Amino acid sequence: MTPQPNPQVGAAVKAADRAHVFHSWSAQELIDPLAVAGAEGSYFWDYEGKRYLDFTSGLVFTNIGYQHPKVVAAIQEQAATLSTFAPAFAIEARSEAARLIAERTPGDLDKIFFTNGGAEAVENATRMARLHTGRPKVLSAYRSYHGATSTAINLTGDPRRWSNDIGAAGVVHFWAPFLYRSPFHSETERQECERALQHLEDTIAFEGPGTIAAVILETIPGTAGIMTPPAGYLAGVREICDRYGIVFILDEVMAGFGRTGAWFAADHYDVTPDLMTFAKGVNSGYVPLGGVAISGAIAETFARRPYPGGLTYSGHPLACAAAVATINVMKEEDVVGQAARIGESVIGPGLRELASRHPSVGEVRGTGVFWALELVKDRETREPLVPYNAAGEANAPMAAFGAAAKAQGLWPFINMNRTHVVPPCNITEAEAKEGLAALDEALAVADQHTV
């Protein structure tokens, strides 16, 4: 795993990227993508030979790290055996992936509809809920991200929705609990839970319960800030949905497959949704794959009625073979247990220790290998280090923090005024401590922007 510098190749890669690749979420002339030469385990490196510890897991998907040999071998073996086949057929890799996923989902979520990623999973889960209930509306939280396809981006709460919001998608947003920045002026977790549930019930009442097909929530919101829900909240949402005949959808695209120290984040809260979306960690992102886990009641809706949806590459053999191998690796190597242990014994305590010394850290929150640091100008007022949706000069403090982290060999996950600590689930104790040390240096730069 020793990077070999090759700047000439790196220059050629960057030139081709600049000439032909159109990057997502970006003003094309204002970005400078790093040319990556290779990756292994928790690290990747550039063509200059500089190595980075990846505290982003790609986009929070390399749950078993890069280039795990057993998953690479499984993809190679599947490619040699049956590299692709249409989704209407029964294929061994597809059937086995579905079986292994269904074994781990809560309750009776035993039917698996495969997609190419998380956004398509949300699209199809929403469609299933609307068809199952015959109702048009879907409720989702303001602090959320559900994907970039048409329905998913309208369900999303963050500013990436604004330019894509068609205003006619049948989506209603509401406030989910977040005590640190409570919209309900709560002082305790219990208050926040009770007031958030009352707010949701009031929203349903004023929208008309008979018009609402589904409530969709990220079990633990990811990109929006890793806000673990207070005790009783998800169970309360489940009860409200049951009372009004509303489908409860949990989005586990980011939180699933070991990220929180459990197979699914729902396992922490003893709650079973009617539909659950997944992607990312299901095969560590080695080949694009996502899906919807479906309850018996909703599956029965389509037992003799065709489901009006499908994808050319649904359950692609290479992606499913990667999922089978990934799930087996996670079981054999106790990756889920490792995520729980490293979060409890190293990352959580380490982040709290950093917070005690750095005035820029307003709050530490998370579980497993799913953490966020809320960076602030002032701990007393909780003013964010940069304004909401800041760009350009207004975002300079976070840009400086990010540059400092990278200079220390740490690739950080940054969103607005937060940095998320989301390394691979099988990160070692030594690697986690290396990352915490780099964060310590970078936070010193953020501290310079506090009052």
Question: Rg, please?
Answer: 22 Å
Main sheet: which strands, in order across? 4-10-9-8-7-5-6
Structural class: alpha/beta
Termini Cα gap: 43 Å
Average of the residue pLDDT scores: 97
Contiguous low-pLDDT stretches (5 residues minimum) are none
> Order of helices and strands, N to C?
HEEEHHHEHEHEHEHEEEHHHEEEHEEEH
Q: What fraction of the residues are assigned to beta strands by DSSP? A: 15-25%
Number of strands: 16
Shape: globular
Q: Tell me the number of helical segments per DSSP (H or I, 4 or more residues long).
A: 13
Helix content estimate: 25-40%
Q: Could you give a short account of the major beta sheet?
A: 7 strands, mixed
Please provide a brief summary of the model.
The protein has 451 residues and is α/β, with parallel strands linked by helices. It has helices spanning 7-20, 57-60, 69-81, 92-104, 118-133, 150-155, 189-207, 233-244, 296-301, 317-332, 335-357, 396-407, 429-447, and strands at 36-40, 43-46, 51-54, 111-115, 137-141, 171-174, 212-218, 247-251, 275-278, 290-294, 361-367, 370-378, 383-384, 410-411, 413-415, 418-421. The longest helix has 23 residues, at 335-357.
Report on the structure:
The protein has 451 residues and is an alpha/beta fold. It is built from 13 helices and 16 strands. The chain is globular, with a radius of gyration of 22 Å. It starts with 6 loop residues before the first helix and ends with a helix.
